[in-house]
Design brief:
By secondary structure, the chain is of the alpha+beta class. Helix content is about 35%, strand content about 15%. Strands 3-7-8-5-4-6 form a 6-stranded antiparallel beta sheet, with helices on one face. The radius of gyration is 22 Å and the shape is globular.
Length: about 375
């Protein structure tokens, strides 16, 4: 078993089968009339690799366990699995000096790990896929990501859930890193780049030294990680994280001009593309001078100035808190969103998967075993 042909033909039926398999994951990977999703898979997976991915479960397994099911040579299979994991095509999990492998969603998963391999061809393929099919996934609940507020703008006398605090998320980690934003790289490659900083996508882990040997992720100290957050805030970027209360391992710093998630709001009007924080902007009309400096800080067009005073469209406000940093008159603040408009994130990734599978009307019988194992192994 080898995988020397790094690019296959999209006409090969193995790619259609793999696309269908990826679409059975709650995250989704919908088909298109043009077949552009098959071109993406053919660019990323050799045919032999696609065939291996088809036989993987979401729950990571040891190579010998996979080989026992498939009848492959464990040694040859391990070489292929290791190569695929190294290129971000499948999940790799290390435990007690053993490595297990599992199938990974296209988003969040395979796509975000293609930073090294993102070229103009891939960028254009993804853009075509985004416009033809991917944006439809942004209508499905629960959302893939959620907004967390700029922490310094959260009133000190208000109780904040730990999952809404970036400092809490980073404080629980043992290693931290930063990498380039694949969304901004993708848009730049097709000639539609923005001026926002590139090196602000943060990732963290509870395992010390996780990123020390990485060629893609630049390892940081905790203080340096907090500095990246501040730099992103100064650039007017929205903090977003995975839409669960536990198991969050990244902070994206997003803009509506490039982010594949926030573009859903800006370009397609999909207000559920990202879940809002538990806060919303509030204007003290007695302090507002109508200077309009806050307008450019809002990524979601939630602010306007009417009769010399700022107004907040609560339906469009995602509670990021960026507008407050532009208000020299201290007329803007974050206040808790009304309780009837707050939906707490799912507790864990298995919970998120179950909710999403139900909304997409996927066969829960096929997923229950996987999700059950995820819960029992506390994978999140």
């Amino acid at each position: 078993m080898t995988a020397q042909n790094l690019k296959g033909s999209p006409e090969n039926p193995v790619y259609k089968r793999l696309a269908q398999r990826l679409d059975t994951i709650p995250n989704g990977f919908p088909a298109t009339e043009s077949g552009v999703e098959l071109k993406i898979l053919a660019k990323l997976f050799a045919p032999e690799e696609a065939a291996v991915a088809l036989r993987l479960k979401l729950t990571p397994e040891l190579p010998e366990e996979i080989a026992e099911r498939t009848g492959d040579s464990t040694q040859e299979l391990e070489v292929v699995l290791s190569g695929m994991a190294g290129r971000g095509l499948i999940r790799e999990k290390h435990s007690r000096e053993k490595t297990s492998y599992g199938l990974m969603p296209f988003v969040v998963g395979i796509y975000e790990l293609q930073l090294e391999h993102m070229d103009e061809e891939f960028a254009r393929l993804f853009e075509d896929y985004y416009k033809e099919a991917f944006h439809r996934l942004l209508t499905v609940q629960p959302s893939v990501q959620r907004v967390i507020p700029v922490e310094q703008n959260v009133p000190a006398d208000i109780e904040v859930m730990p999952y809404e605090l970036a400092s809490k998320l980073l404080g629980e980690a043992k290693s931290w890193g930063v990498m380039d934003c694949i969304c901004r790289k993708q848009k730049k490659l097709i000639g539609e780049g923005c001026d926002h900083p590139l090196d602000v996508c943060m990732i963290f882990s509870k395992r010390p030294g996780t990123f020390d040997e990485s060629e893609v992720v630049r390892a940081l100290t905790e203080d340096e990680a907090l500095g990246v957050l501040r730099r992103a805030e100064e650039a007017g970027l929205v903090h977003t994280v995975g839409n669960t209360q536990r198991g969050v391992f990244y902070v994206c710093n997003c803009c509506t001009c490039s982010c594949a998630i926030l573009r859903g709001v800006a370009e397609y009007g999909i207000m559920g593309a990202v879940a809002p924080s538990g806060f919303q902007a509030h204007v003290d009309e007695a302090l507002c001078t109508g200077c309009e400096l806050c307008l450019d800080r809002c990524q979601f067009d939630a602010l306007s100035v009417v009769d010399g005073c700022c107004k907040v469209d609560e339906q469009r406000c995602f509670g990021c808190g960026l507008c407050i940093t532009a208000c020299a008159d201290e007329a803007l603040s974050l206040v808790p969103r009304p309780a009837d408009r707050v939906t707490p994130p799912p507790q864990s990734m298995p919970d998120w998967m179950k909710e999403r599978a139900e909304v997409r009307e996927l066969d829960m019988g096929q997923l229950e075993d996987v999700i059950g194992k995820l819960i029992s192994k506390k994978i999140s």
